[in-house]
Design a protein that fits this description.
By secondary structure, the protein is α+β, with helices and mostly antiparallel strands. It has a domain of 77 residues. The protein contains 8 helices and 8 strands, in the order βααββββββαβααααα. Strands 1-2-3-4 form a 4-stranded antiparallel beta sheet. Strands 7-6-5-8 form a 4-stranded mixed beta sheet, with helices on one face. The longest helix has 32 residues.
C-alpha cells in the first residue's frame, strides 16, 4: 500500500526565512555590478547613482516577492509517495524523481533537519524531504528501515562560507571594472566567467529546481557577457 506525505501548511514561514537568508547576499551582487558599472563608467553624479540604486533595490525586492510567491506554490504541491518498491517525489513544474528502495545509497539528515535520499545509480537522483513534512517523525522511522540515517552535524562548507564567497565575487567584479593591470583583469574575468557558467550548468542539471527558476537562470548570461566583454576589451587595449 502506498503511503503519501505532503508538507505542513504552517511550515512555510521557516522556508521563507531560509530563502531570505540565502537570497539577500546573492542578490546584492547585481546591485554592486550596476553601481560599479555606472560609477566607474564616468557617471559620478550622486543623484544619478542614487536613482540607479533605488531602481536596483526595487527590482531586487520585486524579484524576491515573486520568488517567494512561486516557492509557496511549489511548497504546497510537494508530495512524497513511498510504495512497495520505490520512493517518488512529485512537485509542480519540477521533474519527478523516483528511486527504487533497493537502490537507496544513503539517507542523511542535514543540519536544518531535512532528509536527503541519494540514489546508488544516478548522481542526479536526489530526493530532499523537508523537515516541514507532515508526520515527519513517522516518515523518518519508515525511511530508517531502508538504511541507517546519517546525521550531518555541521553546515555544508559552501553554506558556512556563503558571505566569504559573496565578498570574493564582489572583489573579482571590482577588479574587472576598476583594475588596469591586464594580468589581474584576465584572472578575475576568467574566474567569474567560469564560476557563473558552472552555476548555470549545475542548476540546469538539478532535478530539484523548478522549470521557471531554470529559465530565469539564463538571464545570468547577461552579466557574464558584460564581464567577458569588458575583460576582452581591457586585455586588447
Amino acid at each position: 500500500m502506498n503511503q503519501q506525505y505532503t508538507l505542513s501548511p504552517d511550515g512555510f514561514s521557516e522556508v521563507r526565512k531560509r530563502m531570505l537568508q540565502r537570497a539577500i547576499p546573492t542578490l546584492s551582487i547585481p546591485i554592486i555590478v550596476i553601481l560599479s558599472a555606472k560609477f566607474y563608467g564616468g557617471d559620478s553624479d550622486l543623484s544619478n547613482v542614487a536613482q540607479t540604486l533605488l531602481i536596483a533595490i526595487v527590482a531586487v525586492g520585486f524579484g524576491i516577492f515573486i520568488s517567494l510567491k512561486k516557492q509557496k506554490q511549489l511548497y504546497d504541491s510537494y508530495q512524497l509517495t513511498i510504495g512497495e518498491t520505490s520512493i517518488v517525489r512529485e512537485q509542480q513544474n519540477t521533474p519527478t524523481i523516483s528511486i527504487e528502495k533497493s537502490e537507496v545509497q544513503s539517507i542523511t539528515q542535514a543540519h536544518n533537519g531535512d532528509l536527503v535520499i541519494i540514489s546508488l545509480t544516478s548522481a542526479k537522483d536526489i530526493i530532499t524531504v523537508p523537515s516541514q513534512t507532515a508526520n515527519f517523525e513517522g516518515l523518518r522511522q519508515e525511511l530508517e528501515t531502508l538504511c541507517p540515517i546519517t546525521i550531518q552535524e555541521k553546515k555544508p562548507l559552501l553554506v558556512r562560507l556563503q558571505w566569504l564567497i559573496v565578498v570574493g565575487v564582489l572583489a573579482l567584479m571590482g577588479t574587472v571594472y576598476i583594475a588596469e593591470n591586464k594580468i589581474l583583469v584576465g584572472f578575475a574575468g576568467t574566474a567569474l566567467t567560469v564560476a557563473m557558467g558552472y552555476g548555470i550548468w549545475s542548476i540546469q542539471r538539478n532535478k530539484n529546481v523548478d522549470k521557471r527558476t531554470k529559465r530565469m537562470m539564463w538571464l545570468s548570461l547577461i552579466p557574464i557577457l558584460s564581464i567577458l566583454t569588458l575583460t576582452i576589451a581591457k586585455l586588447t587595449q
